[in-house]
Amino acid sequence: MPALVDLVLTAVDNAWATRALSGIEAEATDAGIGVVMTIARDTDEWMTRLMRRRSEGAVIVGLGPTGVQLGALAAAGIPVVLVDPVIKPPDDVSSVGSTNWEGGRSAGEHLVGLGHRRIGIVDAGPGTLYNAARVDGFRSALTNAGLDLPTSRIVHGDWSRDAAGEAVLPVLAGADRPTALFACSESMAFGIYDAAASLGLRIPQDLSVVGFDDLPEAQWATPPMTTVQQPTAEMGSVALRILLDLIRDRRAPRGRPRGVTRIELATHFVVRGSTAPPEA
Amino acid sequence: MPALVDLVLTAVDNAWATRALSGIEAEATDAGIGVVMTIARDTDEWMTRLMRRRSEGAVIVGLGPTGVQLGALAAAGIPVVLVDPVIKPPDDVSSVGSTNWEGGRSAGEHLVGLGHRRIGIVDAGPGTLYNAARVDGFRSALTNAGLDLPTSRIVHGDWSRDAAGEAVLPVLAGADRPTALFACSESMAFGIYDAAASLGLRIPQDLSVVGFDDLPEAQWATPPMTTVQQPTAEMGSVALRILLDLIRDRRAPRGRPRGVTRIELATHFVVRGSTAPPEA
């Protein structure tokens, strides 16, 4: 067993990252291992730190390490596991995510089940893997119910509350406005709350809203937000277990072939006060 | 310079703790030092981990280590710095906090300055050092303005939103209800928001509310919350610098006497939408 493993995060100033961190730390504590935390503030500096310290292994959360970076870590003999990578990882790198497609689909099914027919989505653009899966899952639920998702009801935010709020305004102000919207993150769902308030639209009476993540602010929202919950802490603890397996394998005398694992943990749909049947 | 220092936290699931963590990590990165993170889940287990790992030094955030624990760490030669200790630390232990008394006083002065005369407070009970300082500073501002703070307008929460909301209900429902309340934390201020809403009282028209901390949710609140901001990240980075000084001193050949530091960083008053002059 290593005495220490590394944890690399983009930031700790959001509840998503700290939940992942908490899961990793708890699992490490159970195994009697210390976690050295690194916040990746620029592109390569975190790698230098891992190499200098001769890290025994690292869990990398929410970054999109490049092939070059992952190759350098492999060459240095540092096993890594990615949690929710921003871009698709190479085939020889293990990763843990959540069932983003299923999560998006559950959001669509919920809104269809409530009787909505004019349904839209606020996504974060094509740049991230998990965003694309959420959009596809959502569209699949609509298609399955015989509904379409016209481009006029696909709004591109950029993960931020303000950008999503501005982008969705013209769609909500239009004559044929949707009666329900799914946002691919809760920060963007809050942008929808803002836009609805500025137009005098009530949630959920005039507009149903579904978010994604289940951060604490979803519960505190007025009305409390219906959302797709990610098992974030569990993702962290599973990643740490995989990393320990990789480290053990590397130390095995014969160097038997290392199994690459790609795990998606199930999302869970949480119904709160921001969704309701459309008003007649 | 040590290669690694330890960081002990009670939890990472709140923005206060993660800001402190972020300040500590940034300062350590600048110094080329790794931070090993430990979440103190039970009373003594974190100590065992520090001892077993022969920690070179630790920043301890938001716990109230006992004299026995601090003595054991000193005996093991592990220097420590406390950030926002829950109880008063022994005289030979360094600590970093914020100006809680001044912060409480600034809240009182703001409400008095707006013209409020019937003013109350929701505190967290007598158990924690920083709570007591906030209450005293607040009372001082009222006394200075010739106002009193009768026990009927001192409400005891227990840091939680729900408990604070329940505790404040009878005070807000009374005939002589206060026109302004200061809560010693934002979670308790949210409890006041809840109680006011359930009684049909509007914030700030019928009731002004001031919180303490300036966590992200203060900005997101409806209305955005006037609050006392703590320099939490800075508290973390200052603590790390003090720790590195202690480690250097310990390594100095002559063992010159180690200076104990007790630093309070200034709070900052942030005016938002939850306070206004009382309605005539």
Cα distance spanning the termini of chain A: 63 Å
Helix content of chain A: 40-55%
Total separate domains of chain A: 2
The overall average pLDDT of chain A, rounded, is: 91
Low-confidence stretches of chain A: none
Shape of chain A: elongated
Quaternary structure of the protein: homodimer
Name the descriptors:
homodimer, alpha/beta, Rossmann fold, six-stranded parallel beta sheet, 9 helices, 41% helix, 19% strand, elongated
Describe the structure.
Two copies of one chain form a homodimer. By secondary structure, chain A is α/β, with parallel strands linked by helices. Chain A folds into two domains: 4-98 and 231-265, 3-Layer(aba) Sandwich (Rossmann fold); 100-229, Rossmann fold. Chain A has helices spanning 15-30, 45-52, 67-75, 100-113, 129-144, 161-173, 186-199, 216-220, 232-251; strands at 4-9, 34-39, 58-61, 80-83, 94-98, 119-123, 154-156, 180-183, 208-213, 226-229, 262-265, 268-270. Chain A has a six-stranded parallel beta sheet with strand order 2-1-3-4-5-11, with helices on both faces. In chain A, strands 7-6-8-9-10-12 form a six-stranded mixed beta sheet, sandwiched between helices. Chain A is elongated and about 70 Å long. The N and C termini of chain A lie far apart (63 Å).
